[in-house]
């Protein structure tokens, strides 16, 4: 049984004509109003809203109280003209109809919801009258056409792009009528010959050809429906010079009648590259498709593959058999969760069987060698002039990189969570130890800030490298810079280039901070000409190890402390526990000599 759908304006007219007055509409069963496949509301003669259906409330984004005098003419939060200008409630189309009684159909208006979102609607409005013809109210049936308006905007931009392509294309292009009159020419064409538009457009194309038999042959072939490809010709420029060109052209026929030619003109007088460009641009549509980097193929209406490009061969890992393979060029198909997907149920099959484009689907293609490729298909039916489906075209977009990026992002987030927890634990330990060893609040704040800053510096550098590693030179520059430029003579640094893993850099940064802070307060960096000799090397072997030595010279005399300080304990704990290495301290009279060693991986 077929069901006919009544257009919105007919629904409004029916409601307005079948009800003898506003009372009948106001008393209509709510289920009837809600069953209408469009937004509908009824208002009294003063604009007060009496009834509305659920579609209206959904579009308004609010639920007005029927009979509320504060909601008049419409239940929308605000109204706007389609050009964005505000439209007061008492100037809306419903208000106008209540005043004039003249029906209004196909009126576009923009409504704003309380949350600020806007929807464009198409309103059909008629006045309600009593038995004497007096206006007693109005009924408004409106539909959301926001998506259609967006599509119209996209179409307008597309048309503008086509105009821009014609006018600003890099290759000369002109249109010629059946009698040889130049109808239109783009800037490249005019620049090629040096003419102003008014001196070129509207004149006969024969006037600009040096060889009359050539232009006669061109027009004859085009009139016969031939396509010209790189046809050599000579044109006369405005300065009298001769331009050797190659013309590629065909005819636009409308209902069998010659409308105009489309001629691309390429100057080949001086540049051989222009000829190569012309050859590339004059390939047939099939050759252009073959050059596309995206996998592309077409089928007939039964799903039999009729064409595929080389990118499709590379994508599927096989060369399909034209006329025998159906629905998809791939060998095997799977759902994103790995469930087998029969070819006759794939998105291309759905598109052909249902006659609609399929968007937003994902699938996995398996090649004959067993490799799998996640992809997004874009099947679109092809239709003839009568609207019948004659086949379909499909583009397969490899999303392997996106999937890998998503997996890397998940891994990075997991790693970040792990590192944040470790960092917070480290900060907590630093704060607790600093508090236990420092009684003065100001000293406590200074020490804690310095240690957290050392940890933060390493984290900043790792973030800049996307947590893939940190060069030891960069770490030294960040941690030691507060105590003097590395080339100031206060530091003697030597060692090969080493990239530290993300887990090592923050720990070693804390160690260097403690050593540098101690040297600045009590050691070689506290006096002149004291300095620090810092060197390192990497041992060979299955598990490379970093050997690093911090040696202070020229500073005050040093004595072995009776009780290890907090800084010493941090260094020992960081190297032995966090980096699974070892560390020694030699409090020689000439200066502290600290040596450490730990695995790099």
Structure description:
Helices cover 36% and strands 27% of the residues. The chain has 18 helices and 25 strands. The two termini are 74 Å apart. The model is unreliable at 1-8, 14-21 and 272-278 (pLDDT under 50).
Structural class: alpha+beta
Dominant shape: extended
How much of the sequence is in beta strands?
25-35%
**How many extended strands?**
25
| Rg (C-alpha, Å) | 40 Å
Give helix % range. 25-40%
Number of helices: 18
On the 0 to 100 scale, the average pLDDT is 84
- The N- to C-terminal Cα distance equals 74 Å
Detail the poorly predicted runs: 1-8, 14-21, 272-278
The biggest beta sheet reads: 7 strands, antiparallel
Name the features.
alpha+beta, single chain, disordered N terminus, 7-stranded antiparallel β-sheet, 18 helices, 27% strand, extended, 25 strands, 6-stranded antiparallel β-sheet, 601 residues
Secondary-structure map with pairings?
Blueprint: H1 8-18, H2 22-26, H3 30-35, E1 39-44, E2 49-52, H4 54-60, E3 78-80, H5 93-100, E4 104-112, E5 118-129, E6 135-144, H6 146-168, E7 172-176, E8 182-185, H7 187-193, H8 197-200, H9 212-223, E9 228-236, E10 242-254, E11 257-267, H10 272-281, H11 285-291, E12 295-300, E13 305-308, H12 310-316, E14 332-334, H13 347-354, E15 363-366, E16 372-377, E17 380-383, E18 389-398, H14 400-437, H15 441-464, E19 470-471, H16 472-480, E20 491-494, E21 499-500, H17 505-521, E22 531-538, E23 545-553, H18 566-578, E24 582-588, E25 591-599
Parallel strand pairs: 20-22
Antiparallel strand pairs: 1-2, 1-6, 3-4, 4-5, 5-6, 7-8, 7-11, 9-10, 10-11, 12-13, 12-18, 14-15, 15-16, 16-18, 17-18, 19-21, 22-23, 23-25, 24-25
Helix pairs in contact: 14-15, 15-16, 15-17, 16-17, 17-18
